[in-house]
From TrEMBL, chain A:
Native organism taxonomy: Bacteria, Pseudomonadati, Pseudomonadota, Alphaproteobacteria, Rhodobacterales
Protein name: ABC transporter permease subunit
The keyword Nuclease appears for this protein: no
Top-rank lineage group of the source organism: Bacteria
Species for this entry: Pseudooceanicola spongiae
Principal location class: membrane
Coiled-coil residue spans: none
TrEMBL record, chain B:
PROSITE patterns: TAT
Subcellular location: Periplasm
CDD domains: PBP2_NikA_DppA_OppA_like (cd00995)
Family to which the UniProt record says this protein belongs: Belongs to the bacterial solute-binding protein 5 family.
GO molecular function: peptide transmembrane transporter activity
Taxon lineage: Bacteria, Pseudomonadati, Pseudomonadota, Alphaproteobacteria, Rhodobacterales
Descriptive protein name: ABC transporter substrate-binding protein
Domain Solute-binding protein family: 83-404
UniProt-listed GO biological process terms: peptide transport
Source organism of the structure: Pseudooceanicola spongiae
UniProtKB/TrEMBL annotation, chain C:
Family per record: Belongs to the binding-protein-dependent transport system permease family.
Species per Swiss-Prot/TrEMBL record: Pseudooceanicola spongiae
GO cellular component: plasma membrane
Protein name: ABC transporter permease subunit
Record field: transmembrane: 12-30, 101-122, 134-164, 176-200, 239-261, 281-307
Length: 296, 512, 316
C-alpha cells in the first residue's frame, strides 16, 4: 500500500482542511458511479427507516397464510409463519446495516490508532503489526463463535466480532501510510523543529492517511454486513423474531425447494448493497486521485 | 370453542415403522445372498450428527443407525404392541411380586472376536449401566437392582427392591451387550465389538463410519447387505440432498426438508415410532411462573395446531403428554387438555396481575427448537406477556439443564419416545425429579412411585392420576410430538425401526 | 533476504506464543464444558460431575498449558477430549478435503482471473469494458459465502438435481466428487479471481503505455501480437507471485464455504470442536491458522521485494 499517488502533504489549518476534504468527497457523489451507488443505498435505507409506517402490522405479523407465492399484497410472498418476506427483507437490511455502521467505525478508530502508534514508539508499532497478523490469521468464524459463546447471541457479540475483524483492515492501511509519510522531508523537518509527536501525527500524518481510510470504510462497511450474514448462517447471529439478512438467508435456504423467493429476496438485497458500496468506493477513489484499478 | 381438530387436511400419513415388502424376508432370504455373492452390496446412510460409540449404552439419537447392527440386546420392544420380544434372551419369567426376573439366554452366540457369549456378559453390561460414571438414562433404574447373578451358564436372575416387571424391558432395550475384553475400545471407537449382524470396521471422526457383514451371525438368516457406510453430513440441507444423489437411507430429516420428497417416487418417507417431543417448561419458584394460573394460561396461549402445520409441515401430532398417547387410559381430554384459547389465557394472565411481565425464555441453538420459539413468543405476546429469547449453545444449555438453572421459562427437546411412561417420568429432563421447573417433590414422587410399582389396571389408574396432577400443575407443556422422518430409497426393503427408534438392518435387502 | 528472515524471527515466535496463549485461554473462558457435551442432553448434574472427574479436567490451567506446549514442541498435538483420538489424526482425516477444495479453487482462480484480466486489459468496445469493470468490481466485493448462496439459488431453480452439497473424495470417486466440488470451489475462487483480474488489467494498461510497446506499434507489429508478445509477457510476472500468495487466502476462506456446502474439511472440524468445547482440537487449529497466515504474509513481503528492487526488506 505504499502509494506515491497521494496529493502533497496537507498541512493547512484544520477548518480549511475539513472543508476541502468534504468538498472532495462530495464531488465523488457527482460522478455517475457515486450517484448510482448513493441512490441504491438511499432507497434501501429510506425504505428501512419508513418500514414502521409502510407496514404498521409490524415485522412479526404471523398468520396462517404460510409460503404464499408472489402477489400484489406480498411482492416476495410469505414465509413459513405467514409473514411478508418483502417487508422482513427491508427491515433486515436496516438491522444488518445498523450493526455494521456501529461496529466498523469502532474498528476504524482502533485500527487507525494502532496503525499510527509507531509514532509514539517504534516498539509499540511493531507489537500492533503483530496483533494485526494475529487478527488476520485467526479463523473469523471461530472467533465469532467464541465471542457469541461468551457474550451470548445478539447484536452485542456481532458488533464485537465485526469491530475486531475490521481492526487490521484499517490498521494495516494506516501503518503503510504512516511508514511512507514518516520518511518524507516535511515530517523529518517537523521533527527537527521540535514539534511534538502528537501534533505531527494529528496535523500532518493523519490528514494524509484519511483518504484511503475513507475509501476503505465503504468496503469494510459492506464487509460487516457480510460477516453478519455468515455468522447468522451458522445460527449464531441476530435471533428471531427480529430479522437480519443473515437469519433470513438461513431460513430461506431451508425452504428453497418450496419457496425459492424466500432466499432470493435477501440475496438480491445483499448484492445490491455490495454493488452500491463498491460504486461509491470507486467514485471516492477517483475523486481523491487514486486509480481504482491499481488497488487490489 | 376452539379448534381441537387434530386430523386436519394438512396432516400426513406414513408407513409406520416397517418397510417390508410383503414376504421379502422369508421368501427371498437365500436369493438375496446369492445376488450378494456376485456383487457386494453397499448401503449408504447419511445422518446429521456424528456417531458416539462412547455412549453406546445410553439412548442417543446419532447412534440409532448403527447400534443395533453391531450390538444385540436381551430383548427388544415391539414397535406396534410395545411388548418385549426375544433377541439374546430366548425366554424369561417374572415373579408374582414383579421383583425378580429370570432370563434364559441364547446358546451358540459369539462376539465378533470369536468369544462365546455367556451370562457373565449380561452381568457385566448391567453393572456398567448402574456404574457411577454411567451416562445411561437407565442408570437410576439399574441402581435399584439389588442382585444381578448368573444362575447357570445361560441364565441370569435379577432382583430388585421395587417391582421391575415392566421397566426391566426398558433397561434391556438400551442395554446392548458389550464385550468386556475390548471395552476400552468404545472410548475412542478404535474397537467396537458386539454380537450383532454387522462388524465395526472404520470410523473417521465426524465424517464416516463403515460396517461390514458379520458372516458368523447367530441368526439363521444372515444379513443380505455386505457393507454399510454412514456419512456424517452436519449441514441440514446437504443432509437431505444426499437422498437425491445415491444415498439410500437419509436418517432424520427436518419436516420442511421432507416435504419435497413426498411426491418423489424413488423414495419413501419412513417414520420411526420414537420421534421427539418439544416441551416448554416454567420454573415454579420464579415470579410470575410461581402462580399456577399463569402457567396454565401459557398452556391455553400456545397455538399447537399452527406450530404443527407451519413448523413441522403437519408431520406429527399435537399432544399435551410427555409419553405416547397410546399408553393405557389416555383419553382425548388428557391428550388435549390445553387447547388454543387466547382470550381465556389473556384473562387468566390479567387476573393474575402478570400482564406485561417480561419473561426470558432459554432455548438451545437447535433449528427446530428455534423455529418453535418463533411461534411460541408470538403466542405469548398475543396474551399480554413480553417474552424474549435467550439462545444458548447446546453444550451450555445441557449443563444449565442438568443444574436445574434455566431461568423462569425454557424450551426443551426430548427423544426417548417409545419407552413406557413409568420409565420416562424418571429419565426425561423436563419431568424427572431433578427438573429445571423445581416442582416440589412430595406428592409428585408419591404418584410416580405408585405408577412404577403397579401393573395392569392399577397402572392405568396410577398413570391417569399422575397425568392429571402434571397437567394441573402445568410446569411443563408439551407442544408437539414429532416423528423422526427418514428418506429411504425404494430399492431398500426390510429396514425397520424398533419401538424406541433404533434402526435394524439385519433383514434389509438392497436391489440393483 | 536471510537477514530479513532472521530479523523477523523474534516477532514471528512472539506472535506464535501470544497466539498459543489466546488459543488456549479463549475457548476455556466460554461457559459450558466438554463433560456436559459428552454426558449428553439427558444427563443429570451427578453424571456430568462423574465424567468431569474421569476426564481429569481439574488440573491447574498453567500445568495444562505447558503440557500442551511441551507436546507441541515435540510434535505431539494432543488428544481430542471428545473422541479420544489424537488431534493429528483428526486433522489428517480432514486435510484431503480442504486441500482438494483449495487446489480446484486455485485452478479456477487462475483460469477465470486470467481470462477476465486479459479481456479487461485489452482495448474493448466501451460497453464491454464497462460491463467487465462492473463484473469484476461486484465479484471483488462479494465474499465467497454470498456468491455460494447465489449459486445454490440458481442451481436449485435451473438444475434441481445437481448435487449441491456434500462430499466425495476426488481420488476414489472422481465423477461425483467433481460435481460436488465445482460449486464451492467456484464460489471460493470468484472473489480472488476478480482480484487477480484487476491486477493483470492494471499491469497491462501500465505496460501498454511504455515506450517499447509504442515502438513495436510504430514498427507495425500486428495488435494481437503486441498483446501476446509484448504486453502480456511483461504483465504476468508479478501477477504470478500474487496468485501464489492468494492460494493462502483461499485456504482461510474455505471455512464458511465448507459450512454452506457441507464439506467435512478442517473448517467444519474447527466449528464442531468449538461448539462441543473440544479445547484440544480448537487450540491447535487456531495456532495453525495464524502461523500459516503469518508465513504467507512474510512470503508476500519477500516476493514483492524480489519483484521490485526499490523495496528494501530491512527497512521495515
Amino acid at each position: 500500500m505504499t502509494d506515491t499517488a497521494f496529493s502533497g502533504p496537507r498541512a493547512s489549518k484544520s477548518r480549511g482542511l475539513v472543508a476541502s476534504m468534504l468538498r472532495t468527497y462530495a464531488s465523488a457523489f457527482r460522478r455517475p458511479r457515486g450517484m448510482l451507488g448513493l441512490a441504491i443505498l438511499s432507497v434501501i435505507v429510506l425504505a428501512g427507516l419508513a418500514s414502521p409506517w409502510l407496514w404498521p402490522g409490524g415485522v412479526d405479523q404471523q398468520s396462517r397464510d404460510s409460503l404464499l407465492g408472489m402477489s400484489l399484497a406480498h411482492p416476495f410472498g410469505t414465509d413459513q409463519l405467514g409473514r411478508d418476506i418483502f417487508m422482513r427483507t427491508i427491515y433486515a437490511a436496516k438491522i444488518s446495516l445498523g450493526i455494521s455502521v456501529v461496529a466498523v467505525p469502532i474498528g476504524m478508530v482502533l485500527g487507525t490508532l494502532m496503525g499510527l502508534s509507531g509514532m509514539i514508539s517504534p516498539r509499540l508499532g511493531t507489537i500492533c503489526v503483530s496483533l494485526f497478523d494475529l487478527l488476520l490469521g485467526f479463523p473469523g468464524l471461530i472467533l465469532a463463535i467464541l465471542i457469541v459463546l461468551m457474550v451470548g447471541t445478539g447484536w452485542l457479540s456481532l458488533v464485537l466480532t465485526i469491530s475486531l475483524l475490521s481492526i487490521p483492515q484499517f490498521g494495516r492501511l494506516a501503518r503503510g501510510a504512516f511508514l511512507s509519510e514518516q520518511a518524507r522531508e516535511y515530517v523529518q523537518a517537523a521533527t527537527l523543529l521540535n514539534i511534538s509527536k502528537t501534533k505531527i501525527m494529528l496535523r500532518h500524518i493523519l490528514p494524509n492517511t484519511l483518504d484511503p481510510l475513507v475509501v476503505q470504510l465503504g468496503l469494510v462497511l459492506i464487509n460487516g454486513v457480510f460477516i453478519e450474514a455468515a455468522i447468522s448462517l451458522v445460527g449464531l447471529g441476530i435471533q428471531p423474531p427480529t430479522p437480519s439478512l443473515g437469519t433470513l438467508l438461513n431460513s430461506g435456504i431451508r425452504y428453497i425447494y418450496q419457496q425459492p423467493l424466500y432466499a432470493a429476496g435477501p440475496t438480491v438485497l445483499l448484492l445490491l448493497l455490495a454493488l452500491s458500496f463498491n460504486l461509491m468506493a470507486d467514485a471516492l477513489n477517483a475523486a481523491t486521485g487514486r486509480d481504482a484499478q491499481g488497488d487490489r | 370453542m376452539t379448534d381441537t381438530n387434530h386430523t386436519g387436511p394438512n396432516r400426513r400419513r406414513f408407513i409406520q415403522g416397517t418397510l417390508t415388502a410383503v414376504g421379502a424376508l422369508s421368501l427371498t432370504g437365500l436369493a438375496g445372498e446369492a445376488v450378494a455373492a456376485d456383487k457386494p452390496t453397499l448401503l449408504k446412510i447419511a445422518q446429521a450428527s456424528d456417531v458416539q460409540p462412547r455412549a453406546a449404552l445410553a439412548g442417543r439419537g446419532p447412534n440409532a443407525t448403527w447400534r443395533h447392527q453391531v450390538f444385540d440386546t436381551l430383548t427388544t420392544l415391539d414397535a406396534e404392541t410395545g411388548e418385549p420380544m426375544p433377541v439374546l434372551a430366548t425366554s424369561w419369567t417374572i415373579s408374582d411380586d414383579s421383583k425378580t426376573v429370570v432370563f434364559t439366554l441364547r446358546d451358540g452366540v459369539t462376539f465378533h472376536t470369536g468369544r462365546a457369549f455367556t451370562a457373565e456378559d449380561v452381568i457385566y453390561t448391567l453393572n456398567l449401566i448402574a456404574d457411577e460414571g454411567s451416562i445411561s438414562q437407565m442408570a437410576s433404574i439399574a441402581r435399584k437392582f439389588t442382585q444381578v447373578e448368573a444362575t447357570g451358564p445361560l441364565e441370569v436372575t435379577i432382583t430388585s427392591t421395587d417391582p421391575i416387571g415392566k421397566s426391566i424391558f426398558d433397561v434391556a432395550q438400551l442395554a446392548v451387550i458389550v464385550d468386556q475384553e475390548t471395552i476400552s475400545g468404545l472410548e475412542d471407537g478404535s474397537k467396537v465389538v458386539g454380537t450383532g449382524p454387522f462388524t465395526w470396521e472404520e470410523w473417521k471422526v465426524g465424517a464416516m463410519l463403515r460396517l461390514a457383514k458379520n458372516p458368523n451371525y447367530w441368526a439363521e438368516t444372515k444379513p443380505a447387505i455386505d457393507a454399510i457406510e454412514i456419512s456424517i453430513i452436519t449441514d441440514r440441507t446437504a443432509h437431505a440432498n444426499a437422498a437425491r444423489s445415491g444415498t439410500q437411507f437419509v436418517f432424520e430429516v427436518t419436516p420442511s426438508e421432507a416435504v419435497p420428497f413426498e411426491h418423489d417416487r424413488r423414495v419413501t418417507l419412513m417414520n420411526s415410532p420414537a420421534g421427539l417431543i418439544f416441551p416448554v417448561g416454567m420454573n415454579v419458584t420464579i415470579a410470575p411462573m410461581d402462580n399456577k394460573a399463569v402457567r396454565q394460561a401459557v398452556g391455553y396461549a400456545i397455538d399447537r395446531d399452527r406450530i404443527l402445520d407451519q413448523v413441522f409441515n403437519g408431520f406429527g401430532s399435537t399432544s399435551d403428554l410427555w409419553w405416547s398417547e397410546t399408553e393405557a387410559g389416555m383419553t382425548d381430554d388428557l391428550i388435549h387438555r390445553y387447547s388454543y384459547d387466547p382470550d381465556r389465557a389473556r384473562q387468566m394472565i390479567k387476573d393474575a396481575g402478570a400482564e406485561g411481565a417480561e419473561i426470558e425464555i432459554s432455548l438451545p441453538a437447535i433449528p427446530m427448537v428455534q423455529a418453535v420459539f418463533e411461534v411460541l413468543q408470538y403466542n405469548l405476546r398475543e396474551v399480554g406477556l413480553v417474552p424474549t429469547g435467550r439462545v444458548l449453545n447446546v453444550t451450555e444449555f445441557d449443563g444449565l439443564q442438568a443444574n436445574q438453572d434455566l431461568g423462569a421459562m425454557f424450551q426443551q427437546i426430548h427423544g426417548l419416545q417409545g419407552f413406557s411412561a413409568a420409565t420416562l417420568v424418571d429419565v426425561l429432563a423436563a419431568v424427572r425429579d431433578q427438573n429445571p421447573s423445581n416442582i416440589p417433590l412430595e406428592r409428585y414422587r408419591a404418584l410416580k412411585d405408585k405408577l412404577q410399582s403397579s401393573t395392569g389396571e392399577a397402572y392405568t389408574v396410577a398413570l391417569k392420576e399422575l397425568a392429571e396432577y402434571m397437567l394441573d400443575e402445568a410446569f411443563s407443556h408439551v407442544m408437539v410430538h414429532a416423528p423422526s422422518v427418514s428418506v429411504v430409497s425404494t430399492k431398500l426393503t426390510g429396514a425397520r425401526f424398533n419401538a424406541v427408534g433404533y434402526l435394524e438392518l439385519v433383514d434389509a435387502k438392497l436391489e440393483g | 533476504m536471510i537477514r530479513f528472515l532472521i530479523n523477523r524471527l523474534p516477532s514471528f515466535v512472539l506472535l506464535l506464543v501470544v497466539t498459543s496463549v489466546i488459543a488456549f485461554a479463549l475457548p476455556r473462558m466460554v461457559p459450558g464444558d466438554p463433560a456436559a457435551a459428552l454426558a449428553g442432553s439427558d444427563a443429570t448434574a451427578e453424571q456430568i460431575e462423574a465424567i468431569r472427574q474421569q476426564l481429569d479436567l481439574g488440573r491447574p490451567f498453567v500445568v495444562q498449558y505447558f503440557d500442551w506446549l511441551g507436546g507441541l514442541v515435540q510434535g505431539d498435538l494432543g488428544t481430542s477430549i471428545l473422541s479420544g483420538r489424537p488431534v493429528a489424526e483428526l486433522i489428517g482425516d480432514r486435510v484431503e478435503s480442504s486441500l482438494e477444495l483449495t487446489l480446484v479453487a486455485a485452478t479456477l482462480m487462475i483460469v477465470i482471473g486470467g481470462v477476465l484480466g486479459v479481456l479487461a486489459g485489452t482495448k474493448q468496445k466501451n460497453w464491454i469494458a464497462g460491463l467487465l469493470d462492473g463484473i469484476i468490481g461486484l465479484l471483488v466485493a462479494t465474499p465467497p459465502h454470498v456468491t455460494g448462496l447465489v449459486m445454490i439459488l440458481i442451481m436449485t431453480l435451473v438444475l434441481p438435481y445437481w448435487p449441491i452439497s456434500g462430499e466425495a473424495s476426488l481420488i476414489s470417486d472422481p465423477g461425483y466428487g467433481f460435481q460436488l466440488i465445482l460449486l464451492p470451489a467456484l464460489a471460493l475462487s470468484l472473489p480472488q479471481a476478480a482480484a487477480v483480474a484487476r491486477l493483470i488489467q492494471s499491469n497491462m494498461r501500465t505496460v501498454a503505455q511504455m515506450d517499447f510497446v509504442e515502438l513495436a506499434r510504430a514498427k507495425g507489429v500486428p495488435p494481437r501480437r503486441i498483446i501476446t508478445h509484448h504486453i502480456l509477457r511483461n504483465s504476468l510476472g508479478n501477477a504470478l507471485i500474487v496468485i501464489a500468495l492468494r492460494v493462502g487466502e483461499l485456504l482461510s476462506g474455505a471455512v464458511v464455504i465448507e459450512a454452506i456446502f457441507a464439506r467435512n474439511g478442517l473448517g467444519q472440524l474447527a466449528v464442531a470442536a468449538t461448539q462441543s468445547r473440544d479445547y484440544m482440537v480448537v487450540q491447535v487449529i487456531i495456532v495453525g491458522a495464524v502461523a500459516i497466515a503469518a508465513l504467507v504474509n512474510m512470503l508476500s513481503e519477500i516476493g514483492l521485494a524480489i519483484l521490485d528492487p526499490r523495496i528494501r526488506l530491512d527497512t521495515k
